[in-house]
Amino acid sequence: MEIAAKDLAVRFGRVTLLRKINVRIRDGEMVGLIGPNGSGKTTLLRILANLRSPDEGTVSYTGRSAAEVGARRLSQQIAYLAQAADVHWPMRVETLVGLGRLPHRRPMRGFSSDDRMAIERAMVACDVIAFRDRTMSEVSGGERLRILLARALAVEAEMLLADEPIAALDPLHQLQVMELLRCTAREGRGVVVVLHDLALAARYCDRLVLLAGGSILAEGKPDNVLTDAHIARAYGVDVVRGHKDGVPYLLPWLPSAASCRSSSVSAIGRTGQRVGADQ
Questions:
Q1: Domain check: are 95 and 174 in the same one?
Q2: pTM, two decimal places
Q3: pLDDT digits over 132-189, tens only?
Q4: Looking at residue 214, what is its pLDDT?
Q5: Residues 242 and 231 occupy one common structural domain
Q6: Do 244 and 222 belong together in one domain?
């Protein structure tokens, strides 16, 4: 499967959030969608998942529109994990994961053997099998996120779109989820993941799309996207770099000089004097 977005634009009133966005997602690759807060990552992901319509532009699915594919077929092909998704009723964990099989089930039919195997695989992969008989009110925030990821994986879709799936996880489970997503891509499915951790994005993603200022600032292999200049321009920070076992890594370290100058100018504009200056 291939998802292709062409000339997308999104506006909120007079504010243009995204403009002239062109991106393709293919089977067998893990794409990291990165950028500062408010850059439109979640909005773009929802458009790719056919959960929101752009104000301009089109999205096609292996050359066909969503209407041509059909809602049921598209729900089988694309699994979506929302940011900070919540569950407002005391459903059993296994039952919730089983909701991922709804696109494949016929009306008034129970789970098939294929459904049950998919649910079991998803719970094992996300390390939530021990919670299967608990209700969602009896698990922690990090466990809840892994359970919701298991629900998305249970769809066994051709494309998995995940919005900040590691945001509430401890370091061990962050690494396990990133490994799981990369393995999912290696099995031939497409993965798009919204991330704020640049080190994990660089380490695990095949390709990065960096959003900033309403457009794509850079796209390509992590080394080509996460340059000092791109990071300073998008995030306003400088990074430190190193290598571990031959793998490069980077860490945000300090606000960039340009960012500091901008903050100082803003402070002067608000107060009429530099913040911290003698009275």
A1: yes
A2: 0.88
A3: 999 988 988 888 889 999 999 999 999 999 999 998 889 999 999 999 999 999 999 9
A4: 94
A5: no
A6: no
* Same domain for 269 and 170: no
**215 and 244: one domain?**
no
- State pLDDT tens for residues 211-262: 999 999 999 999 999 999 999 999 999 999 999 988 889 999 999 876 665 5
Residues 6+ apart with CB under 8 A from 178: 166, 200, 203, 204
Nearby residues of 187 by Cβ (< 8 Å), 6 or more positions away: none
- Domain range for 167: 2-235
Q: Copy the structure tokens of residue 83.
A: 């940011």
pLDDT value, residue 278: 41
Cα–Cα dist 162/145, whole Å: 11
271 versus 239: which is more confidently predicted? 239
pLDDT tens for 76-121 read: 999 999 986 667 677 899 999 999 999 998 776 778 999 999 999 9
Q: Burial of 259 by CB count in 10 Å (0-12 exposed, 13-18 middle, 19+ buried)?
A: middle
Same domain, 152 and 273: no
Domain end position, chosen among 219, 235, 251: 235
